[in-house]
Design goal:
3 domains, mainly beta, about 475 residues, single chain
Length: about 475
């Protein structure tokens, strides 16, 4: 492409190209864009490093030595709330909230404690049961989970009492978090995940360096303080996509992720930074539906005692890692559906009770453009099944209806689908919903992914371009190359 330009000797032409199908200049291809983090201290420099923190109702609650403290998100109003374990020769460690009360792990009295958000009504929640060194705590709607450095993970009711040991094998536990129907644990150099009932323990990573009380889950990402290397690391919920999102100037400890905002105990401060979506190749968690709790409500329509190939996932259940099921779907393996393009599991959007819906909220940046890709298939017709099968795809405030024709008997034919959308905020909801409940098989969905489309800004200095002496013009030549898939 050539263009004749009348030069001005002290001007720089800034060419801005937003690329959806083209990448400017072949030497840019293959570069990974990772934005440097701006880490901001929140509030005053403290007398020591906080050992736990949580964010609730616009405030940061943190533990320092024996006491519980609170400050506003901008660092103002720093106040000591409680001295519940003061003077007992140990520390108040990790803190967490269930949206109603603040909970802390006390390795002083080998118990967990709770307070109202104003620091009142301090009381013991869990004690005994073999706990002897609880260093972190997590809370869901029903239970308190304590990471005990000596004996593993304990769980007990919010109403209090003696907890039950869940994972005796996980000794040296240093942090625990609960999200989306799963429990996440750091232990030694390892990161683990388990079902809420203690079954299905899997190791997601074995390469951490002294993670100390730093573990949080938000918007489909696991964040860990890799304290030995002064790093914050993120993972997808299945342990893939390991990414260093920040290398810090001091040792990170406790962390709390709120959307894409990360609060971290950093030296004798609490600091914060923002994770950008540019740091993740795929923003969807478990887009192949391979990971989750494929148990319970497993179909046995033939009554022969064997699995007929799917798990009924009702609305509100957390079987599918990363996905929220708002109305029921069927989660299939390969017994009834084949061939599958990726792995051994897919989601049938017609659940046992009719049309189903699943959703996931992903981190985005306002004004950026993203590409949603997914595959659909329509199982064979018959029994009043619609052809084609319709679904509605939600991407933010916009919806797109997709029709998928039926496949031949016994052999799924996969349709490739792609939708580009522009984000309007810091998070975007992605949802898939069946529009026709006729027939027990609906549209089958697999291989869901979202990636940010690159925006490249190219600065070209034309102050010294050679001029044409005849008419005082200069010629700028630029080449556009490399088509993005």
């Amino acid at each position: 492409m050539k263009r004749r330009i009348s030069p001005s000797r002290n001007r720089v032409l800034l060419v801005v190209a937003t690329l959806f199908g083209l990448l400017i200049l072949s030497f840019l291809v293959g570069a990974t864009s990772v934005r440097a983090q701006t880490v901001t201290q929140v509030g005053p420099t403290l007398s020591g490093q906080p050992t736990g923190l949580t964010v609730f109702d616009g405030k940061i609650y943190y533990s320092l030595s024996h006491n519980l403290h609170v400050m506003n998100l901008d660092g103002s109003g720093n106040t000591q709330l409680s001295t519940f374990v003061s003077g007992k020769g140990g520390q108040l460690r990790g803190v967490a909230t269930n949206g109603l009360t603040i909970h802390g792990a006390s390795n002083v009295w080998d118990r967990t404690v709770s307070w109202n958000p104003d620091g009142s009504d301090a009381k013991v929640v869990l004690s005994g049961g073999g706990m002897n060194n609880p260093v972190d705590v997590a809370v869901d709607g029903n239970f308190v989970y304590a990471a005990d450095f000596g004996n593993g993970i304990f769980r007990g009711p919010l109403s209090g009492g003696s907890p039950n040991v869940h994972w005796l094998a996980v000794t040296g536990a240093s942090a625990v978090a609960v999200s989306g129907g799963f429990v996440y644990i750091t232990e030694g150099t390892n990161l683990h995940r388990s079902n809420l009932d203690g079954t299905g323990l899997v190791t997601l990573d074995t390469g951490l360096t002294t993670p100390i009380g730093g573990l949080s889950v938000a918007q489909g990402k696991i964040y860990v303080s890799n304290s030995g290397l002064n790093q914050i690391i993120s993972y997808n919920l299945d342990g893939t996509g390991k990414t260093v999102v920040a290398t810090l100037g001091a040792t990170p400890g406790a962390i709390e992720a709120v959307g894409t905002e990360i609060f971290v105990s950093l030296g004798n401060t609490i600091s914060r930074f923002t994770v950008t979506t540019e740091q993740f190749d795929d923003l969807i968690v478990n887009g192949t539906f391979e990971t989750g709790n494929f148990i319970g409500n497993v179909s046995d329509d033939s009554f022969d005692g064997e699995d007929d190939g799917w798990t009924v996932v009702s609305g509100g259940e957390g079987h599918l890692l990363g996905w929220q099921v708002t109305t029921g779907v069927d989660w299939h393996n390969t017994i009834q559906f084949s061939p599958l393009n990726n792995g051994t599991h897919v989601v049938d959007l017609n659940g046992t009770g009719g049309p189903g819906r699943i959703l996931q909220t992903i981190p985005t940046q306002n004004g950026r453009t993203y590409r949603l890709r997914f595959e659909t298939a329509g199982p064979s017709t018959g029994n009043g099944f619609p052809n084609p099968r319709p679904i509605r795809v939600t991407h933010g405030a916009t919806t797109t209806d997709i029709n998928t024709p039926h496949s031949p008997e016994g052999s799924l034919v996969w349709q490739q689908n792609s939708i580009d959308f522009t984000a309007t905020g810091a998070s975007t909801e992605i949802a898939f919903q069946s529009l026709n409940g006729n027939g027990f098989w609906g549209t089958v969905v697999d291989n869901v992914s979202v990636e940010e489309l690159p925006t490249v800004t190219l600065g070209i200095d034309i102050t010294n371009l050679p001029e044409n002496p005849a008419d005082g013009t200069a010629t700028l030549t630029a080449t556009l190359s490399k088509t993005l898939s």
